[in-house]
Here is the input.
Amino acid sequence: MTGKLDSLTALQAQQATPKAFTREDRIRAQARDVAESFESMFLAQMFEFMSSGLEVDPTFGGGPGEKAFRSLLNNEYANGIAKAGGIGVADPVYREILKLQEVDP
Here is the structure.
């Protein structure tokens, strides 16, 4: 009976131990983060350009503070869109980073 318990305990310990990440796994994770960050920055620049010609509604605000907060809002929109899958910029950037690092996707 103790033999079965020892085997069961060893199996549970083996399953509970996280798999060690390889160098390639770390590179893939970092490349994905960089690609999403690049897409987020790209989207934020697009939103800045799109909102630059908008007039401020004096009923709901205006002034120099709104300009600062508009850029923060654009950045948050861009981050949310990039994390949700983006517009397709991150995937080719990700593949290109992996190619330069000589890692298979």
In short: Residues 30 and 96 are 13 Å apart (CA to CA). Residues 22-100 form one domain. The mean pLDDT is 82. DSSP finds four helices and no strands in the chain.
